[in-house]
Specification:
It is globular and about 30 Å long. The protein is about 45% helix and about 20% strand. The chain is of the alpha/beta class.
């Protein structure tokens, strides 16, 4: 059974790039565009990895990450956060809230696919 990735990104152009790159790796992919939709998707199905933008409508990626880490049924879920405001402060905050990885936008294709594959293999 293929591993499942939930992409949480509200910007269509970035979401389409993520979908293309991650699907090419052979993973099942679901995409949502808001924080509340991400939390709902996680409650409805099993995902192995969440690729999570920080700035989202409804609630931030930080809030989503915090919810994932407080939910027992999501204990196994890996979280990769990303933001265009990719600085050391944002990365520290993401890691403090339980993110397994952090990448800055714009990201390279290699960096993205390597990080996704590493997190899913560590599962």
């Amino acid at each position: 059974m293929a591993k499942s990735v939930l992409v949480v990104e509200d910007e269509d152009s970035i979401a389409m790039a993520l979908e293309f790159l991650i699907s090419r790796q052979g993973y099942d992919l679901t995409r949502v565009s808001t924080g509340p939709a991400a939390i709902e998707a996680l409650s409805e199905g099993a995902h192995d990895l969440v690729v999570l933008d920080v700035m989202l409508p409804g609630c931030s990626g930080y809030e989503v990450c915090e919810t994932i880490r407080k939910t027992a049924s999501c204990a196994h879920v890996k979280v990769m956060m990303m933001t265009a405001r990719g600085g050391a402060i944002e990365e520290r905050k993401a890691k403090a809230l339980g993110a397994d990885a952090f990448i800055a936008k714009p990201f390279s294709h290699v960096e993205l696919t390597d990080t996704v594959n590493r997190l899913i293999r560590d599962d």
